[in-house]
Design a protein that fits this description.
- The protein is an alpha/beta fold.
- The chain contains 16 helices and 22 strands.
- It has a five-stranded mixed β-sheet with strand order 1-7-6-5-19, with no helix packed on it. Strands 4-3-2-8-20 form a five-stranded parallel β-sheet, covered by helices on one side.
- The two termini are 24 Å apart.
- The structure holds 3-acetylpyridine adenine dinucleotide.
- The site of 3-acetylpyridine adenine dinucleotide has 25 residues, from helix 6.
- 3-acetylpyridine adenine dinucleotide binds next to helix 6.
Length: 546
């Protein structure tokens, strides 16, 4: 292990900014954390943001068709009545520019921007054990130091571009959806190849197909998808949600996934075939992620899951005209919602278009990218543009890439070499005073994110408040409590069907070489919140405070 001296920075005092807390990232998490620490606790806080604007995931994900999968009226903050009552969404599922507009509205309303440093990419962070101080270095050579460091870097922010032979030789343009050019991409007259059919690929393919001369979709794993049924939000809808927000937020916090609807208490196996079909039909017509809530055991019982999977497989046949293509698009290797279920606007219909071709990569894997396109084991596909909708190094990638060294110089990358080890998804042993918003081991990506974020930020803020009130300067997760939490995260996942999808990014399976560990906490938001509250009330059981 490296000594503390070798990893602590030699800081030039003049270039260093000292404050009470450093937050990395200016998305939903960073903005709310800044507000809480600065405006409620009165701390001196700085937010360091790599992008030249705020918005986090919504700053980077500007691919065609990028919109939220949670409904707009609850994909927003719940902590401020004025914001809640003043803001109006235009669509059931907001598109990325509208979400950025919302976050800018919030940031302006709360006067947050004065404490956000844009174009400031963190390149490393190191903890000084003697001073109980974090020092953060940025790409432009600045240093920031503070007793508390809070990562608000998102769960899906490190692009996963597969290492395909020959990509550098491609004469056309290629893009990853999570790093989309702000000026947009002109697809007109172009032959486009899209790799990936997760939530992103399913959102973007219909839009690209409308704009491009030709689209080839390279599919490795067929996916389920539910129609989003997007549409405008009416004045009546707005009035209804504004009048009912207290109940909406109560429901969202009381549930498993931070959505303001309850999961049915009935088993899919407790009703007749006809009744089950009718319930699924209604959920299909309503659209969106709520389909999952049709029965209590869709994600708990293999037989129950099969009823939902079969219903959705049949729907593909009714939409896609060519039976051979419909079969290629039909998922057979995993049950519905064991991977994050996408929702779509015309995805399966896209394969009825004359200018769209589907390539099954299981039957003909990619061999290489050539100067002119993609070569599979069967043929060459000529392309002008390649779109990588290939997902992210989820949950751990954004944290490990910060190059964090904790107590006695231990690197986060090494501490997590066999998979992330956190206590409550909030802290890791040997990384004192470092808090992670929606980190691995917390419900995070299994939830409606703003609600999960608010719970984490509130807990972290209360913890810092309590520490300051008690004159404590250091908090660190115990190894013992961390090991127990990691075991509990596994138990919670094993009580569901989620670990069954072997190619899921929840398991890190999408990134070659990444350890296969189920990362988010699947025990539900309400249960998780009560565990976190109980830990705090017990005087922070499982943490060492001094
Ligand atoms: O990424 P993914 P995503 N060769 O990892 C394929 C959130 N999100 O960006 O399944 C060929 O799900 C891969 O194939 P396989 C949401 O939580 C939210 O789509 O690994 N193919 C898969 O088809 C979501 O779950 C919104 O076999 C390769 C695809 O690429 C998460 O982000 C919108 C490959 C990647 O799918 C990630 O979604 C969009 C290779 N080498 C996304 N490598 C909202 O609206 C990967 N693939 C909030």
């Amino acid at each position: 292990m490296a000594s503390n001296e070798s990893t602590a920075f030699a800081v030039n005092e003049q270039s260093s900014h000292a404050c009470d807390a450093i937050i990395i990232g200016a998305g939903f998490s960073g903005l709310y954390q800044l507000h809480k620490l600065r405006d409620e606790l009165g701390l001196d806080v700085v937010v360091l943001e790599k992008g030249d604007g705020i918005g986090g995931t919504w700053f980077w994900n500007r691919y065609p068709g990028a919109r939220c999968d949670s409904e707009s009226y609850y994909y927003c903050y719940s902590f401020n009545k004025e914001i809640e009552q003043e803001w109006s969404w235009s669509e059931r599922y907001p598109e990325h520019p509208e979400i950025r507009k919302y976050l800018n509205f919030v940031a302006d309303k709360l006067d947050l921007k004065r404490d956000i440093r844009l174009n400031t990419e963190v390149t490393s962070a190191a903890f000084d054990d003697d001073a109980n101080l974090w020092t953060v270095q940025t790409k432009n050579g600045q240093f920031f130091s503070a007793p508390f460091l809070i990562t608000a870097v998102g769960c899906l922010s490190t692009a996963n571009v597969p290492d395909i032979k020959g990509l550098a030789s491609f004469k056309g343009q290629w893009y990853h959806t999570g790093l989309w050019p702000h000026e947009g991409v002109d697809f007109s007259g172009k032959r486009v190849g899209q790799i990936g059919t997760g939530s992103t690929g399913i959102q973007t393919a219909p839009v690209i197909a409308e704009q491009a001369k030709h689209l080839t979709v390279f599919q490795r794993t067929a996916n389920y998808s539910i129609p989003a049924r997007n549409g405008p939000v009416t004045a009546d809808d707005i009035k209804h949600t504004r009048d009912n927000y207290d109940e909406i937020w109560r429901l969202a916090r009381a549930g498993t996934n931070g959505h303001p609807f309850t999961i049915s208490t009935r088993s899919a196996l407790s009703v007749s075939n006809a009744e089950r079909q009718e319930i699924y039909e209604k959920a299909w017509e309503r659209g969106g992620l709520r389909f999952r809530a049709s029965f209590s055991d869709v994600l708990q019982n293999v037989e129950a899951n099969l009823t939902a999977s079969d219903f959705l497989r049949d729907k593909i046949k009714t939409v896609v005209k060519n039976p051979a293509i419909a079969e290629m698009l039909t998922p057979r290797d995993h049950g519905f919602a064991t991977k994050r279920p996408p929702i779509d606007s015309g995805y399966f219909e896209t394969f009825n278009r004359d200018n769209v071709l589907l390539v099954d990569l299981k039957a003909e894997p990619i061999v290489e990218v050539t100067a002119n396109g993609i070569r599979t084991t069967k043929q060459d596909y000529a392309l002008d543009i390649i779109v990588f909708a290939t997902g992210f190094d989820a949950l751990t990638g954004p944290l490990v890439n910060l190059n964090i060294s904790g107590s006695q110089g231990i690197k986060l990358k090494d501490a997590w070499a066999a998979g992330p080890r956190t206590y409550l998804g909030l802290q890791s042993p040997k990384f004192p005073n470092l808090f992670t918003i929606t980190g691995p081991g917390s419900p995070s990506v299994l939830c409606n994110m703003p609600i999960a974020i608010e719970q984490h930020v509130d807990w972290i803020t209360n913890c810092i408040r309590d520490m300051r009130a008690n004159g404590q300067k250091r908090i660190e997760a115990n190894t013992d409590s961390t090991e127990k939490w990691v075991a509990h995260v596994n138990e919670a996942a094993d009580a569901t069907l989620l670990p069954m999808a072997s190619s899921s990014w929840y398991l890190g399976a999408n990134v070659p070489g990444k350890p296969r560990v189920f990362m988010p906490y699947a025990g539900g938001l309400a249960r998780y919140t009560s565990i976190c509250d109980d830990v705090a009330q017990s005087g922070y059981r499982g943490f060492a405070l001094s």
